[in-house]
Amino acid sequence: MGELTAQIVQQGRGPALQGAVQRRKLAKEMRSAREKLTSSVGLERSYEYELVRLFAQYHSGSSILLLVFATVIALVSSLWVPIGQTTSWLCIAVVVIGTMLLLAQRFLATPAEEVRLAEWRRRFILLELITGLTWGLAVQTLAHVEAGTNGFALFVVLMVTAVTTSLSATIPLAVYLGLAPLAAIALSIAANQRDFDAIMLLAMTSSAILFFVILANRLYSSALSTIQSRSEKDAMFAELEQAKANSDEARRRAEEANLAKSRFLATMSHELRTPLNAILGFSEVMQNEVFGTHATPAYKDYSADIHASGQHLLTLINEILDLSRIEAGRYELKEEAVQLAHIVADCRHMLALKAKAKNQTFREFLDPSLPRLWADERAVRQIVLNILSNAVKFTPQGGEITIKVGWTSSGGQYVSVKDTGPGIPEEEIPVVMSSFGRGSLAIKTAEQGSGLGLPIVKGLIDLHGGGFQLRSKPREGTEVIVTFPAARVIDALPAVDVERRKKTQAA
Predict the structure, then answer these.
(1) Integer CA distances (angstroms), 100 to 36, 95, 173, in order
(2) Residues 370, 307: one domain?
(3) pTM recorded for the entire structure
(4) Co-location of 464 and 436 in the same domain
(5) CA 472 vs CA 276, 420, 427: distances in Å
(6) Contact at 8 Å (CB) between 432 and 387?
């Protein structure tokens, strides 16, 4: 079984992501090829069904207009043709149009999975041929009455050709068979004509029929392209929905894992702190020789090492718990008015002995006149201590650390700590900002640490709505800047003039 990495969980996929994608693609191609082989027109079933459905939908929606058109032709033809003959033709046209309407509605009412496409295509093609013969009958009747009716007959041919092309373009064979009787009648009329103007009119009619045939092919290609594009879009939406479902499932699992981690840390923190307090207490008693001098002097050094190791482990546990609460959104700020410059000065004083042991010097540029901030004092102290302790750790013997506290350009306040340490390569900055991350130069030159200092600083400053910047280059040192927004600065109110207030009240 493959390893479930964090990247795979983040993507919401299984371990065999590429293989699953390739298998789905291959299965889709095989299904498409199988449908094309079994199709009567060489298309996938879904595409063929959509084309036939469009044919039925167009004919179902235009039946009334076709009936009106047939009625108008019958009325106009009655000027030259006996009324009984035109009435008979109109009845035939009504039956044919009504049959097409019933078939189209029946097809649209049938579920897609139950439709036999080949059979329905044959039905529609045959009925379209019958419709073309019906229209051709009317044109043939008009053409044989007298020469003066040829113009109206050719007009009917053009109108029927346009209607057939627009309604039946999604089944090209239906267009060809529907226009074949009209084209044959137009050619027969041309063969019996000797007048040049009539021959030119018939030639233009024939050209128009050819144009509509080409137009029908274009409409078919356009409809097929539209259906294919819509199918690809639907497939893409399905992929996106599946990816979203996978992502939601991965997020749910991550949340469950995070909750389990928080519960584990909450439980283990108590289980670890209890024996650690005993270790720290007893090791401190042994280190200070409260109950008498050790028989062996080395025991005092051992107890000091035990106490230092326990203290380090307790600090690490506290940092892990702080970061866990920040990531889970459960770190509650206890806000109050604090003086940023004073907190920085206190933290610098706490690290003074450690810096002095490495012969490091501090350069301070603190503005004591800064107004107070509305912030969590413990969190601010932890922010400053973390970045100052990092500077002390990474600055070599005899190095210099510069501390600045002042105003930001937007009216907030900032703390800047710059050291003269080894620096961090640009590509390693994301690593340093991750939990337990350490740069390569830092590992070689600095003291060991948990790698949680900067992530905790980033999390705490984000809770205050501030900003965090890390600027560093190899062998040029590192500068960390944290900023607090102007909204957290407490503006000082002007002093109350007591004497003037008394005079105002007396007046």
Answers:
(1) 28, 9, 16
(2) no
(3) 0.47
(4) yes
(5) 37, 10, 11
(6) no
3-state secondary structure of 482: strand
In angstroms, the CA 341 to CA 347 distance is 10
CB atoms within 10 A of CB 278: 11
Give residue 281's Cα distance to chain centre.
55
Spatial separation of the C-alpha atoms in residues 166 and 99, rounded to whole Å: 19
Average per-residue pLDDT for the chain: 80
For the CA atoms of the chain, what is the radius of gyration? Answer: 44
Q: Would you report the helix, strand and coil content of the chain in percent, each value rounded to 5?
A: 70, 10, 20
Handedness of CA 187, 191, 192, 198 (dihedral sign): positive
Q: How far is CA 32 from the centre of its chain?
A: 28
- Which of these, 284, 348, 356, lies nearest to 314 by C-alpha position? 284
Residues in the chain: 507
Cα 48 to Cα 303: distance, rounded to the nearest angstrom = 85
The one-letter code for the residue type at 242 is Q
Q: Are residues 280 and 234 in the same domain?
A: no
339, 305 contact by CB (below 8 A): no
Residues 271 and 153 in one domain: no
Backbone CA torsion sign across 106, 110, 112, 114: negative
d(CA 192, CA 436): 97
- Together in a domain, 134 and 239: yes
Helix (H, G, I), strand (E, B) or coil at 360: coil
pLDDT band at 92 (very low <50, low <70, confident <90, very high): very high
CA angle 201, 202, 205 (to 5 degrees): 90
Inter-residue contact 373 to 484 (CB < 8 Å): yes
What CA–CA distance (Å, rounded) separates 507 from 503? 6
* 281: Cα within 13 Å, side-chain hemisphere: 6
Euclidean distance between CA atoms 381 and 346, whole angstroms:
9
pLDDT single digits (tens) 178-225: 888 888 877 777 666 666 666 676 777 778 888 888 888 898 888 888
